[in-house]
Hints:
Layout: E1 3-9, H1 14-29, E2 32-36, H2 39-43, H3 51-56, E3 63-68, H4 70-80, E4 87-91, E5 101-102, H5 106-114, E6 119-123, E7 126-131, E8 139-143, E9 146-151, E10 158-164, E11 167-174, E12 176-180, H6 188-191, E13 204-209, E14 219-221, E15 226-231, E16 239-243, E17 247-251, E18 256-261, E19 266-270, H7 276-284, E20 306-307, E21 313-315
Parallel strand pairs: 1-2, 1-3, 3-4, 4-5, 6-21
Antiparallel strand pairs: 6-19, 7-8, 7-18, 9-12, 9-16, 10-11, 10-15, 12-13, 13-14, 15-18, 16-17, 20-21
Helix pairs in contact: 1-5
Amino acid sequence: xxxxxxxxxxxxxxxxxxxxxEAVKELTSAGFDVTLHDDDLAEDFGNHMSAxxxxxxxxxxxVVMVLGGDGTILRAAELTRGTDVxxxxxxxxxxxxxxxxxxxxxxxxxxxxxxxxxxxxxxAVVDVAVHLPGQxxxxxxxxxxxATVEKASRERxxxxxxxVDGRPLSSFGCDGVVxxxxxxxxxxxxxxxxxxxxxxxxxxxxxxxxxxxxxxRPLVIGPRSTFTVEIREHSAASGVLTCDGRRSIDLxxxxxxVVRRGDVPLRLARLSTAPFxxxxxxxxxxxxxxxRDRLPQAVRSEPRGVPVPxxxxxxxxxx
Length: 319
């Protein structure tokens, strides 16, 4: 039975197109069938790699390989969420926190994939319900990194009420509020002054943006709790909800946004078993001068793995 890889990339970047040609060559040489998600790029490789096949059979792929930065990985996540197919990111961007491999290691990544030498890690998402004034049914969505409520116009302050588990906690004026998963804690929430959460932390984070208030600090709630953000009815500004920087909905005064940990995780293929601490040091170029490793190798923590179909291990991180 043939093995299939679906490739998602940023077709507007020459670097991505060059990486795509190399990836297709490497994957086909390793015996994979390759399909491309982008119609225009698929035409360059012939009809046997049509985007139509990609849309029809994401679930037939062993892995979705993403060539690009975190934004491209978030776009690919829209294809794989709700399936068992993991994402394997090859970083062509800047920090690339979600990516598993760098551009110069593409050949090695394909070889590891061919040998089924990878683990699959589950990452929690947040589910979002938007209750709009005058509408009986909420608009629903989800995010891997964060759901952000921000003011729609820069010259006005957004008036919000924040609640936890259906009870009001604090009201204030602000530029917005970021509600993040542990995975997204190194993205927008981190830039706004929020803490870094390790990927296995089963929690949801809220970080106010430029809040005009004495009590407007980051908050962390457990997996069974919910955050509520209401746009106050007298707010001079309307808001906008954005999920992962990609999917948006306008929020007039009186809107209510409810965010909770989702039940359907997203799956990422991992090539490295290095701890998250090492990834953090590498991606942010953190100084660690003076550290002396005193732990014997035998007592260092190892990643948790369980068998998955095809011979790979699954690093099932519950979030």
